[in-house]
Write a structure and sequence with these properties.
Strand order of the largest sheet: 1-2-3-5-6-7-8-9
CATH architecture: Beta Barrel
Helix content: 10-25%
Number of helices: 2
Distance between the termini: 29 Å
Length: 177
Amino acid sequence: MRFKLIVLLLAITSFVQAQKVITRNGVIQFDATVPGATDQVLAKNNSVSAILDKATGALAVQVMIKSFRFKLPLMEEHFNENYMESDQFPKATFKGKIKDFDSKSGSYEVEGDLMLHGITQKVKTKLMVKNEAGKLYVEGMFNVKLKDYGLSVPAIAKKTLAETAKLTFDFIFEQKS
């Protein structure tokens, strides 16, 4: 009897763990370029961690702010020191749920809490899921008002730095058989 109980618990644990998929090399792009500006305020982060529970649609994402890379080193320095204060606020997170998620390819709505610069706000957006060759591809975009996260655009930067940033995300989750 005891052996059967242990086997049952191990089977349940394996099943529950199989429902969660993880990536440590997701991509988030930050774009706060004013239309028509000569310099792009554009950065990419290729080392984003995310976990998706396929059974519930729960999605958690974590990104280290200092991992965003800009074309111009000076812009990256300003981003980290003057705006994001990445020594004080080293990461951004998202914790939410994909509505009616069933792992099938298609469009879904996701909503949850985005924490950026130490401030958490409710956000909601659409995302696309593609289930192909044992992988789940998840991509989408948030528009973020910088002032909602305690970030202000100084007058000198208004010709280049927009007051709303576009955050695009792209994750590839490996599914285990």
